[in-house]
Specification:
With 145 residues, the chain is α/β, with parallel strands linked by helices. It has 5 helices and 5 strands. 35% of the residues are buried.
Length: 145
């Protein structure tokens, strides 16, 4: 499956939460109004702006296998939900934009009030092919209010 590096996938209805594969061009990201990036792949992004107070960049590399440390996962979801609720746009990205990025975006959607089963449905609707990792999908589906 070819990876489109020129677009982000909008997950919420307000244009504040996105997922994508690896990013190589900040101009694409900034065109969506994103000022917060959660990077889940194994390398730091070269294109992130370094202007003070310009971009919040969270580097949390995880494997696309088992769930990461749940306390850290919850902390990142809380931070992401807080920033989105306060008007910031956030991009969660990994290598291909299917599982790790969707796990974080799903946890953020849940923190914003969406039930787990709806989170999985939304992610799969907005990012075709998302959550083929059954462990991540089941984790999100199991989240209650």
């Amino acid at each position: 499956m070819p990876v489109d590096l020129t677009k982000l996938f909008q997950i919420d209805d307000d244009g504040k939460l996105f997922i994508s594969p690896v990013i190589r061009d900040w101009a694409i990201v900034s065109s969506y109004g994103v000022n917060t990036v959660i990077d889940l792949e194994g390398g730091l992004d070269d294109c992130i702006p370094t202007v003070p107070n310009g971009c919040l960049y969270v580097y949390f590399p995880i494997y696309d296998e088992q769930l990461p440390d749940l306390a850290r996962l919850e902390a990142i979801a809380n931070m992401g939900a807080y920033l989105i609720a306060n008007g910031h746009a956030l991009l969660s990205h990994c290598g291909m934009g299917f599982n790790r990025s969707a796990l974080i975006a799903g946890r953020i959607l849940h923190r914003l009030g969406m039930p787990g089963p709806d989170v999985v449905e939304r992610l799969r609707e907005r990012r075709p092919g998302a959550l083929f990792n059954d462990i991540f999908a089941e984790h999100l589906r199991s989240l209650t209010q």
